[in-house]
Amino acid sequence: MLSASCGRPLSADQYTSEDALLSTHLMAARAHVENITGLKLVTQVWDVYYDAWYDEFVLPVQPVQSVEIFYTDDEDTETELESNYILDSICIPPVVVIEEEPTATLADRNPIRIRVTAGYELPNDIPEPIRQAMYTVIQGLYETGEISAGVTQTVKALTEHYNSLEFLQ
Predict the structure, then answer these.
(1) pTM, whole model, 2 decimals?
(2) For the segment 93-105, what is each residue's pLDDT rounded down to a tens digit?
(3) Above pLDDT 90, what percent of the chain?
(4) How far apart are CA 52 and CA 58, in angstroms?
(5) Of 113, 112, 126, residue with least CA distance to 43
(6) Long-range interactions of 164-167: CB distance < 8 A, separation 24+
(7) Angle 17-37/128-144 helices, nearest 10 degrees?
(8) Which residues contact 15 (CB under 8 A, 6 or more apart)?
(9) How many other β-carbons are positioned within 10 Å of the β-carbon of residue 60?
């Protein structure tokens, strides 16, 4: 069920093609802003694989809500690392620091999997400049049907202090 801005429920027959268009524009705006900033704006789960134990694992997505760490041994048994690590989700890029490596012999390929839950938990957690960038993209799509170079420049200007991609290069 959908809700109107006044809080009253909308029935399916009140849902219009305009609503569908705005929903599509919202998804496109989110993707565009995520591509520019490197941030995940909605909660997403990513599996990131590594070939060996490192003192710290740099995570390619942010903001990070939580991580789970698994490793596969040479007998193809996957085990969750219950503790022995610290998630530093504040630093850019976020890292996981391993305090003590398991002694098991690792499988040959991609033996370490870090399941990262990333993204802002609630829409109001998204910083205002990033929300403004999304509104700018939605407006451009609604008015012209495309994301112009001017819109992209505005998005970059609004989000320059949140760009995590420059730290991953």
Answers:
(1) 0.79
(2) 999 999 999 999 9
(3) 73
(4) 13
(5) 126
(6) 164/37, 164/38, 164/39, 164/62, 164/92, 164/93, 165/36, 165/37, 165/38, 167/92, 167/93
(7) 130
(8) 2
(9) 15
pLDDT for 20 equals: 86
Q: Tell me the sheet residues that pair with 118.
A: 44, 64
SS3 155: helix
Q: Cβ–Cβ contacts within 10 Å for residue 123, how many?
A: 9
pLDDT in tens, 14-67: 567 888 888 999 999 999 999 999 899 999 999 999 999 999 999 999 999 999
Helix (H) or strand (E) holding 49: strand 44-50
Handedness of CA 61, 82, 54, 88 (dihedral sign): positive
Largest separation between any pair of C-alpha atoms in the chain: 61
The encoded tokens of residue 80 equal: 């969750």
Place of tokens 């989700």: 89
Rg (CA), the chain: 20
- Which tokens hold the place of 34? 């995520």
* Measured distance between the N- and C-terminal CA atoms of the chain, rounded to whole angstroms: 43
